[in-house]
Specification:
Blueprint (H helix, E strand, L loop, with lengths): L4 H15 L4 H9 L12 H14 L3 E5 L5 H10 L4 E6 L2 H13 L6 E5 L2 H10 L5 E6 L6 H10 L1 E10 L15 H15 L3 E10 L2 E10 L2
Parallel strand pairs: 1-2, 1-4, 2-3, 4-5
Antiparallel strand pairs: 5-7, 6-7
Length: about 220
């Protein structure tokens, strides 16, 4: 018997209820995503906790995020780095950034997060030009056609041992189609090929099913 999308959602709800209790700030941040330019595009609660745990495992105190929206994942990351840590989140739309800032304030982490507004590639290049201190952890969850450019920027802004996570890499299975006309699919395929060809990187990709449907993460460790 094949599991249905309803089954996926029910299992995710069970995992979240059992292992990932959200406080009011996280609930408000998640629900406020409906007011952004991409409603309900934030990571699921159990995925947010996974990002936070990966930060802890990596010992990350400096995090770079491509794509803020309402700041739901940003709250998880900011809590993970601790009071002395720093998160830089890159968001295209000022409308979304304003919602995120309110959520970060409500969560008590606004003082450790910088939300930079504008095209993420431009903001990342400014960080490079300004000689930003390297980041320990990078989460790429912005427009998918730009994934290859975001990876190049991430590599310029990290150090050996840094961890990079790319979201939404399955594309409902379309990632396997080399002839897909969808530029989001091609953005994922190109970045995966770039990772495979880069001797500095070791990586894997995992399919996920759950409240966000059928998708997946690519997890990368910069070896040198």
């Amino acid at each position: 018997m094949y599991a249905s999308e309803e089954d996926w959602r029910e299992v995710d709800a069970y995992f979240v209820d059992t292992l990932v209790p959200e406080d009011e700030a996280l609930i408000e941040a998640r629900e406020s995503g409906r007011r952004t330019t991409m409603p309900q595009a934030e990571v699921a609660p159990n995925q947010g906790k996974l990002l936070a745990m990966l930060c802890h495992i990596a010992g990350a105190t400096r995090v770079l995020e491509f794509g803020t929206l309402a700041g739901y994942s940003t709250v998880w990351l900011a809590r993970a780095v601790g009071e002395k840590g720093r998160v830089t989140s890159l968001e295209l739309e000022e409308h979304n950034a304003a919602i995120a800032r309110m959520n970060l304030e409500r969560a008590g982490v606004a003082d450790r997060v910088d939300v930079l507004v504008g095209p993420a590639a431009d903001s990342a290049h400014r960080l490079i030009e300004d000689g930003a201190e390297p980041y320990d952890f990078v989460f790429i969850d912005a427009d998918k056609p730009s994934n290859p450019e975001y990876l190049r920027a991430a590599l310029a802004l990290t150090h050996p041992g840094s961890v990079i996570v790319i979201d939404n890499v399955v594309r409902n299975g379309a990632v396997t189609d080399p002839d897909s006309p969808d530029d989001r699919v091609q953005g994922v395929r190109t970045v995966l090929a770039d990772i495979a060809q880069d001797a500095r990187l070791e990586a894997t990709a995992l399919q996920t099913v759950g409240s966000k449907g059928w998708d997946g993460f690519t997890i990368i460790r910069r070896a040198h």
